[in-house]
Amino acid sequence: MQKIFVRRLSILSIALILTVQIIAQSAHSSQGTTYLADGVSAYAKSKHGADGALFLDPFFIPTLQNLSGKKLLDAGCGAGPWSIYAAQYGAQVWGVDLQKAMIDRAQEAAHQAGLDQHIKFSVGSVAALAHEDNFFDCAISINVGCNLPLDVFGAHFRELYRVLKPGGIAIITAPASFATLFTDGTDPKEISTAIDQALATMNADDAQSVLGQLNTLTHIVRGTFVTKDGRVVRVNNENVLQEGDAIWRKIAGLAVPNFYHSERAYEDSIRQAGLKLVHVDRHHFASFSEWARSEFSLGREYVHHYPFAVFHVSKS
Ligand SMILES: C[S@@+](CC[C@H](N)C(=O)[O-])C[C@H]1O[C@@H](n2cnc3c(N)ncnc32)[C@H](O)[C@@H]1O
Known about the structure:
The chain is α/β, with parallel strands linked by helices. The protein folds into 2 domains: 24-45 and 178-259, no CATH class; 51-176 and 264-314, Rossmann fold. It is 38% helix and 24% strand. The strands form 2 sheets. A 7-stranded mixed beta sheet has the order 3-2-1-4-5-12-11, sandwiched between helices. Strands 6, 7, 8, 9 and 10 form a 5-stranded antiparallel beta sheet that branches. The chain is globular, with a radius of gyration of 21 Å. Residues 1-25 have low confidence and may be disordered. S-adenosylmethionine (SAM) is lined by residues 31-33, 76-78, 81-82, 96-99, 102, 125-127, 142-144, 147-148, 152.
């Protein structure tokens, strides 16, 4: 009896270890990235951080304020902040995300905001949308392309083209300047020591270990890391990356799995899908005096380098 109990216990332990390993290693999947449980919570809280408030949000939020009565697709909606924002301004919104944990958060937030009737959230891929052709007036894809492997990335843009009405518009945002370490202005030596320690301590084969160690680098606002020869290293030259490479990013308030796509790849994929690239915003502080006047604590690198690119496109 005791033997059977011990055997069952060990089978259970092995199953548990395997499950934990699968969860820990499933950060980059063939469909897109999966944020681990603490990542989902942190993302739901953090939005885009201080540099997002300056260099990202102002370049798509005004569009969301002008969609009253219009149909909006929030592709890769995450915990739903922009779906809710647009619905508050009168848009009819459909939010789609691959991760159920994100959709659960989004549904809860929409319910709390009293907007259940105005937003339909569903689990699905931005590369295979359930919507009919020519359905939406507008689509947003806010920092979603960087979560997609190469083939899914191209399919996402083709789907945006398909579901947009002729004359419809889309805003696609992406991280940029991958070789730049964007910081909160802390002494670079202190940050460099912390990076060395974190990289030395992590197990490159275990997503939980990599993300856990990157999470300790709280003074990095945006930074890119990649696994090379079994070790995680910081990217300080974009040429070491190839389109679609699995990468790790430390972003505002958390660390996440991502896939690398250059700005050129966004522009090419937009055009290849049949969409027209209207213009691209690439903002940073224009001068050191502007940087010094900022209410936010950000490093000097924000004077020369832009953390995001915002692609404004239309379907003619
Ligand atoms: C950086 S988050 C952005 C969330 C939201 N757009 C925002 O700005 O708050 C990226 C999201 O893309 C989702 N994602 C990754 N691959 C996807 C796919 N193939 N289809 C739909 N969503 C995907 C992730 O689950 C995650 O919620």
